[in-house]
Write a structure and sequence with these properties.
By secondary structure, the protein is mainly α. The protein is built from 20 helices and 4 strands. A 4-stranded antiparallel beta sheet has the order 1-2-3-4, with helices on one face. It is globular and about 100 Å long. The relative contact order is 0.07. Pathway: Porphyrin-containing compound metabolism; heme A biosynthesis; heme A from heme O: step 1/1.
Length: 533
């Protein structure tokens, strides 16, 4: 390499590479210095020249400064800034030129190979056993797969079906036909005559057979046995068809971290629901849980817990699936989604949103009250509407009867009658159902007034209309079930109508909500689209 310095500039030349650049003082420039750059591109196929270029990039900064300048730097005072500025400009140009040359050389095979080797040498060593927690968290996608959303909706539909079938099992008094809980071996029914006789013998030892079905033979027993066995088998199918895909979707990173936690929570709830089911059945196999000589039945508390858990599981699946599908729909057309979310944030819709949330709580409470009615067979009394006997309510002495108290001082009079007195339980259910009916009508009327009517989105308006139809159908089914003394078809339809009404309220509430995560994804996609333009 040749170096030559003058009083007014520095000139550097690499003969073997064909690269020449110089700096020259220019009094007319803004800083008194100008840089003249001359570069002769080397042949791309000359590997030796490429090697020199790569070596030039690794040279120290002092290699590009002439010896005369170094000697002057040691002697010259700090005020001599022109030479310093010229040298710094030369170094800056050398770095820029070398970087550009390196970028050009990366298009050749040797350049690519050297870049890969350099990146490998500079990469920090990863600890054995996997990546860090931040890397594992970032491996989850920003949006869950659409297939997960459809699978959740299908699982919710299966839970809807088993709730209705469970009501049929209770109405046909088949729930106590299997007196044991075998989660694995109980998947198969009795396979031989001896097995059937053994199961029938166990049932004959139960209070239900002794007090209610003592006339039953083996053929009739098989009918109620298969009802309960099918109900339990359906529950096992729901558990396996949910837990196994949950493991797969999380392992394959097909869901977001939030949905992954939701799937794990639902899986745990399904297992807990199976335990509650057996806990409920077990209460009907002991005669110490009900009055001597009365109709054998399961505990109304455990029945309400079993039904409520099923409703919670169904609602959780439904809302999770709808949120995933809604996110994908919003990302397909982010501009329309942004407009829809902006409309939902209107202050005029605040009252509708709160009303629907209150409706959800009211419907859930009415469903719990209906479970108590079913557990106590309270629908078999006062089979008339709207009166209960001679008036709208039974006599006060019947509603608050000390017969149901277990404390001598009567301190449990109120809550025990509200939960264990069939007359008061039915009256409570009537009041809650009537309140729900008129509350839906009130929300419908409110959504058609003034500012709310102008601001309410079309899909929310359809949801409110659907609630009116559902609550009207449910009220009619409830009245008919009561008047006709709980026939099995009407009673099963009434239970299905309760779940359908809850579905309508949940869907309407979900349409009114602005999901923050989806809104952030939509805004991010809009910003990305704007930046690309």
């Amino acid at each position: 390499m040749m170096r030559r310095a003058t009083a007014v500039g520095v000139k550097l030349k690499l003969p073997s590479s064909g690269l020449t650049f110089s700096t020259r003082a220019n009094p007319k420039g803004p800083t008194g210095t100008s840089i003249e750059q001359t570069q002769t591109s080397p042949p791309r196929n000359n590997l030796a020249i490429l090697g020199v270029r790569r070596a030039a990039a690794q040279l120290s900064r002092s290699s590009f400064v002439c010896g005369q300048y170094i000697r002057q730097q040691k002697i010259a005072p700090p005020t001599s800034s022109r030479i310093v500025q010229l040298a710094r400009a030369a170094r800056s140009y050398a770095t820029t030129t070398t970087t550009a040359t390196t970028a050009d050389s990366q298009h050749t095979p040797i350049g690519k190979l050297s870049s890969q080797l350099g990146a490998t040498a500079k990469a920090p060593e990863q600890p054995l056993g996997g990546s860090s927690s931040d890397d594992a968290k970032s491996s989850f996608p920003k949006t869950s797969s659409k297939a997960v959303g459809y699978w959740l909706i299908g699982s919710a539909a299966s839970v809807f079906g088993i709730v209705v079938f469970g009501g049929l099992t209770r109405l046909t008094e088949s729930g106590l036909s299997i007196t044991e809980w075998k989660p694995v071996t109980g998947s198969l029914p009795p396979m031989s005559a001896a097995d059937w006789e053994s199961e029938f013998e166990k049932y004959r030892a139960s209070p239900e057979f002794k007090l209610l079905n003592s006339h039953m033979d083996l053929a009739e027993f098989k009918k109620i046995y298969f009802m309960e066995w099918t109900h339990r088998l359906w529950g096992r199918f729901i558990g396996l068809s949910f837990v196994l895909p949950t493991v797969y979707f999380i392992a394959r990173r097909r869901v977001t971290p939030r949905i992954a936690g939701t799937l794990v929570g639902i899986s745990a709830l399904i297992g807990f629901q199976g335990f509650i089911g057996w806990w409920m059945v077990k209460s009907g196999l002991k005669d110490d849980l009900f009055a001597p000589g009365s109709h054998p039945r399961v505990s109304q508390y455990r029945l309400a817990a079993h039904l409520s858990t099923a409703f919670v599981c169904y609602s959780w699946m439904l809302l999770a699936g709808l949120s995933i599908l809604r996110t994908h729909k919003a990302l397909r057309d982010p501009q329309a989604a942004a407009k829809a979310f902006a409309a939902l944030q209107s202050p005029a819709l605040r009252g509708v949103r709160g009303s629907v949330a209150g409706l959800t709580l009211l419907v859930a409470t009415t469903v719990f009250s209906g479970a108590l009615v079913a557990g106590l067979d309270a629908g078999l009394i006062y089979n008339e509407f709207p009166k209960m006997g001679l008036g709208l309510a039974p006599p006060k002495s019947e509603l608050w009867d000390r017969f149901y108290c277990r404390n001598e001082d009567g301190s449990d009079l109120w809550w025990r009658n509200m939960l264990e007195n069939p007359s008061l339980v039915q009256l409570d259910h009537r009041i809650l159902a009537t309140t729900t009916f008129f509350a839906v009508l009130a929300v419908f009327a409110f959504s058609r007034t003034g500012r709310v009517k102008a601001a309410i989105p079309k899909d929310v308006r359809k949801g409110v209309n659907g609630l009116v139809h559902l609550v009207s159908m449910q009220a009619a089914l409830g009245i008919c079930t009561l008047i006709y003394m709980v026939p099995i078809p009407l009673a099963a339809a009434h239970q299905a109508g309760a779940l359908a009404l809850l579905t309508g309220v949940l869907v309407t509430g979900q349409r009114l909500r602005v999901p923050k995560s989806t809104l952030a994804l939509v805004q991010k996609k809009l910003l990305k689209a704007a930046s690309q333009k």
